[in-house]
Specification:
Elements lengths: L1 H11 L1 H8 L5 E7 L4 E5 L4 H18 L4 E5 L6 E5 L5 H13 L9 E6 L5 E6 L2 H14 L1 E3 L2 E6 L3 E3 L5 E5 L14 H13 L4 E4 L17 H14 L3 E5 L10 H17 L5 E5 L8 H18 L4 E5 L7 H11 L6 E6 L7 H7 L6 E3 L18 H6 L9 H11 L5 E4 L7 H12 L5 H12 L5 H13 L10 H15 L2 H4 L2 H36 L3
Parallel strand pairs: 2-3, 10-11, 10-17, 11-12, 12-13, 13-14, 14-15, 15-16
Antiparallel strand pairs: 1-8, 2-4, 4-6, 5-6, 5-9, 7-8
């Protein structure tokens, strides 16, 4: 069985794999074995660079079962690491590598230079612009690597120079009962998930305060909402990521002194608990709808409290109220263009009545727009599945496992030129694949979705089945295209995932990302069979009724 899977992989997928994953300068015939190599890293006092190095050590060691050794050295510039053979003369080789770095342009913001070469002997050189660039360089290295028990190999790159296209690349991770997974997570699970998002280019997360439009707690929670919010901020700070907080106005009468005093006291408690906070996003509605003439003066008071603890933090606001008129919108854009010192920018999200290109024209050119895409819902939402078959819409519902890589790339690329990046709206892990697609497109909109899917499968599921899993995820999206009753893709998709189910090792079958996709494949096929059967019954009933006298 395993042999036939391998044959199928190389006969069907290898040309596309090489085209999407291997730069033109890469030696496609070679793989470098790094299983027993040593990581040499620059000496710095930057804790976030140390964290990036720990990520490399932990992710490689956990997957290969072989401990990774790090040696700090003064021969390399800041935010640089080199991986060379254990038996090589490290002093001579590192000196040579340091000279190479001097002769090339430094990476752009948040960027990195990565080189995997075999001359004179196998070696890896990664230089980050800063600690964040080093983390993304390590992420690129891990995504290209083959990591499994006893194996750590890399294809031979000549050079990769990368920097992100958009400055905002993040996702909302709200710890509240409304979400479909997060409220049951531990601190460790959140850290691993935040780490994985960062390895694929995310540079910020968005958290939530204890008081939102939801129940204050659930039976699944291991920490209080305040406690987990604090931990999320700490985790992001450790990785050098930015921290946003989605903070709706949950009461009324923000022009009354007693209400203002109470609400400011709550925000003081929240802001003071966070070790890092870079931005506050206040939705204009859904929930917390307030007229701009009320909300902007209120936010100025909020900013005074915010800056006691986070002096550089900005406040962003969206015009996403559900009941607006032209006077409301005129007032919003009038305030937004005032350039208040605490004002960071405008957020384009669900319920915004202004088209994105029109919003860009209404705002002063230097005022940034952040995209707030709803990637988690499939209907009754910002970007519903077009012409979704009612059988799926009625049974899968609004919030199901919804990998939509092709659609999400299209949505992103149409709207990205008007924005400074995105922080997605998410309510759990049902949109897990969509998160990686958005991060990948915010990093580089030219990235083919199949390349991102292969990297997700290789690093986060299993490298031996990355092509089959990537193709299977694309197939799940095709299941939703056109009338279900005649969609032959559904059966093909199920066969793909059933074949994988039989071939993959036990740890893959236990992987939640694999399980979600496998379950969807079975579910789609079941609903199609049910639809065919019940349609036949309905037709029979209609024939009988049509033949009745009354």
């Amino acid at each position: 069985m395993r042999h036939s899977l391998s044959q199928r992989r190389y006969s069907l997928y290898l040309p596309a794999l090489l085209f999407c994953l291997i730069p033109a300068s890469m030696n496609a015939g070679g793989q470098m074995d790094l299983t027993n190599a040593i990581v040499h890293a620059a000496r710095t006092r930057d804790r976030t660079f140390d964290k990036a190095l720990n990520v490399l050590v932990e992710e490689v060691s956990r997957r290969t079962g072989t401990p990774v050794k790090i040696q700090r050295t003064s021969f390399l510039p800041d935010y640089t690491l080199a991986i060379i053979n254990r038996n090589e003369d490290s002093r001579k080789r590192l000196t040579s590598m340091a000279e190479q770095i001097k002769n090339r342009p430094a990476p752009d913001r948040e960027g990195f230079h990565l080189q995997v070469s075999s001359l004179p002997t196998p070696a890896v050189l990664m230089q980050g612009k800063d600690s964040r660039g080093a983390l993304y360089g390590i992420g690129r290295l891990l995504r290209a690597a083959t990591l499994k028990k006893g194996v750590f190999t890399l294809p031979l790159f000549n050079a990769v120079n990368q920097a992100p296209c958009y400055p905002l690349r993040g996702h909302q991770l709200g710890y509240r009962p409304k979400t479909n997974a997060y409220d049951a997570w531990s601190v460790g699970q959140f850290e691993q998930y935040i780490r994985e998002l960062a390895l694929f280019g995310a540079n910020c997360i968005e958290i939530m305060p204890p008081a939102t439009d939801d129940d204050p707690s659930s039976s699944h929670m291991q920490l209080s909402t305040m406690g987990m919010m604090t931990e999320q901020s700490r985790i992001a700070a450790a990785y050098g990521l930015d921290v946003w907080i989605w903070y709706p106005n949950m009461t009324k009468d923000y022009d009354r002194p007693e209400v203002i005093e109470r609400e400011l006291a709550e925000r003081d408690q929240v802001f003071s608990r966070l070790v890092k906070l870079d931005a506050v996003f206040v939705p204009g509605g859904d929930p917390g709808e307030l007229h701009p003439d009320v909300v902007f003066p209120w936010l100025e008071k909020t900013a005074r409290v915010l800056h006691q603890y986070h002096p550089q933090a900005k406040i962003w606001i969206s015009p996403q109220a559900t009941r607006v008129n032209q006077e409301w919108l005129d007032a919003f854009y009038r305030h937004a263009n005032q350039r208040y010192p605490w004002f960071g920018g405008v957020v384009f999200g669900p319920w915004v009545k202004t088209k994105l290109n029109e919003m860009r024209a209404l705002l002063e050119p230097d005022i940034p727009i952040r995209h707030y895409p709803d990637i988690t819902h499939s209907l009754s939402c910002q970007y519903p599945v077009p012409f979704w078959d009612p059988a799926f819409a009625l049974t899968l519902g609004r919030e199901c496992y919804n990998p939509r890589p092709v659609a999400e790339k299209a949505i992103h690329n149409v709207q990205a030129p008007f924005c400074s990046g995105s922080i997605s709206y998410s309510e759990g892990i049902n949109d897990d694949i969509n998160k990686f697609i958005w991060s990948g497109q915010d990093w580089d909109p030219q990235t083919p979705v199949i390349a991102t899917l292969r990297e997700v499968a290789r690093l986060l599921i299993h490298p031996d089945f990355s092509e089959e899993i990537a193709q299977g995820l694309l197939a799940l999206e095709k299941n939703w295209q056109g009338p279900l009753i005649s969609n032959e893709q559904v059966g093909i998709t199920l066969q793909q995932w059933q074949y994988l189910e039989k071939c993959v090792p036990r740890q893959v079958r236990a992987n939640y990302r694999f399980q979600m996709a496998l379950l969807r494949a079975y579910y789609d096929a079941y609903i199609q069979k049910r639809l065919v059967y019940e349609t036949h019954l309905e037709n029979q009933a209609m024939e009988l009724l049509g033949a009745a006298d009354a």
